[in-house]
């Protein structure tokens, strides 16, 4: 039955060309157009179509035939393409401020085309530009229009050759000279060189440089950010005292020029200190609105949390692209069959469904989570810009920091494993470079490392959870938060007493089952981690040693389980809300249940060890439910991919074509 939403979708979402995929599309239990409209809305779909059409219609974005370009040529072309994105004016500054999700969509659409291009644009506008806007004040806003007119091109220089994740140990210095009202930016040695900085290699003219701020007689005031010109915008030659260059070829994203820089007594005006966290008067007195040094430090590095949230979105895009390619190929690739004369699509095999469909469910669940976390981050930044210094704002900052610190590992690792599974599920064709899965794997890989090593970041999340338990034990403080991600800990003792009690397989096919199990699992791991930490301290370990000895099997697992719980909860609530159109409820709830149960199944040993599961029936029921959901979603898989896949020109994979005509493709 046609609905008004389907009518609206016909113009924005034209029918796919008929071909081998038509059989699966005809069997789908829902309208893919209706689902796209429900998840995205007309306005967002129109923006995406505009972006994709602009890329496809512009000869500068034509895909090069005959293999990869030489690195220098690729980087030159990537810069020209980045400039053309600005010329197309796909999103005005006012739109970015009024509808932040459109910025998210623009970056991810560019990433679907090429992550080197998306990263170049993102680092200039959203990392460099946002650092100035969020960490600076009105005196710095002069830089913003210059970014959009490309008078200047920016980068974010935090990481050094010898220090990355340990930001407190950054060694670049900024000494204030009151006689000239200037800061002197200096790299004490080569190990303090800024390194891995995207856009710095060839094209950046300005950098947000993080350095230890020193004032005369006042000592060191910790890490602060400064706007530093590193090249002449007209000639791109280095500024006096700046040694800057390219670090060379990487495993992926080689259209992006990652670089290094060293500073030798480079003088910059006092006003180029980004002063939201702290400022220096003309006479050399350090002033800050923060009484707590830790809170000031968090403010100085606030942009890192937003970057981590963005990386979650990037990882989800890579997973979407990979499952789109693999599922379309699996629906057309025929191998073996019940008789020698009849071959069936490999998607009909239970093994192929089990390998791919949980990652399709993960793409949907993580996509919803990443967008919701991005909007949470926007709320936090708006509070900071409004100078909200309330305890609630500070608590929101801690909560989002904990979520961002675990969501980047979960999303990037899920994409990493998912892309590899998709590559293998496509057999030899998946190994052909032209089918893009190898490029996706290489381009996703740095998501596991930059903006904080995944395993180190997880400690931030477990520390947050352990601190909540300690506060609860000491003073009976309530475990409540603005985003309600930890509110379930109010029932911490009661939850630990719960057990898996699902009477039938049918009852197990709902995401409320893994949701309850995850709440128990997080409480169990929190108790175990807390007991392990206290045991280490009682045995004589100092706090550093004790925490270091609690990561493997305890705190690391705790942080990941907590984030998985949060993803499951948000997707469960989203798919069970009354506003979901009735024709979409069944398929969305199956996706929600499959993601929850599949993720939970990776913790089966812990569920048995802690006593939540007992007897072989519990584990068998989870496994059977996963396979049942895969079978139920099999006929919907192609339509679900149609919702998330970009046009063929952007997807750029012969085996992932929308018409399914794999055989006709010529390399």
UniProtKB/TrEMBL annotation:
Q: Which Pfam families match?
A: ACOX, ACOX_C_alpha1, Acyl-CoA_dh_M
Which GO BP terms apply?
A: fatty acid beta-oxidation using acyl-CoA oxidase
Q: Where is the active site?
A: 451 (proton acceptor)
Record's keyword annotation contains Transit peptide = no
In which pathway does this enzyme or protein participate? Lipid metabolism; peroxisomal fatty acid beta-oxidation
Query: Which intervals hold domain Acyl-CoA oxidase/dehydrogenase middle?
Result: 155-264
Gene3D superfamilies (alphabetical): Butyryl-CoA Dehydrogenase, subunit A, domain 2, Butyryl-CoA Dehydrogenase, subunit A, domain 3
At which positions is FAD bound?
A: 159, 198
- Protein keywords: FAD, Fatty acid metabolism, Flavoprotein, Lipid metabolism, Oxidoreductase, Peroxisome
Any idea where the Acyl-CoA oxidase C-terminal domain is?
A: 512-662
InterPro entries listed in its UniProt record: ACO, ACOX_C_alpha1, Acyl-CoA_Oxase/DH_mid-dom, Acyl-CoA_Oxase/DH_mid-dom_sf, Acyl-CoA_oxidase, Acyl-CoA_oxidase_C, AcylCo_DH-like_C, AcylCoA_DH/oxidase_NM_dom_sf
UniProt keyword annotation of Metal-binding present: no
Domain of life of the organism encoding this protein: Eukaryota
Among the entry's GO cellular component annotations, what is one?
Answer: peroxisome
Per the database record, which ranges form the Acyl-CoA oxidase C-alpha1 domain?
303-466
GO MF, one term, reads: acyl-CoA oxidase activity
Q: Which reaction does it catalyse?
A: a 2,3-saturated acyl-CoA + O2 = a (2E)-enoyl-CoA + H2O2; (2S)-pristanoyl-CoA + O2 = (2E)-pristenoyl-CoA + H2O2; tetracosanoyl-CoA + O2 = (2E)-tetracosenoyl-CoA + H2O2; hexadecanoyl-CoA + O2 = (2E)-hexadecenoyl-CoA + H2O2
UniProt lists the family membership as follows: Belongs to the acyl-CoA oxidase family.
What biological function has been recorded for the protein in this entry? Oxidizes the CoA-esters of 2-methyl-branched fatty acids.
Q: What is this protein called?
A: Acyl-coenzyme A oxidase
Organism listed in the record:
Equus caballus (Horse)
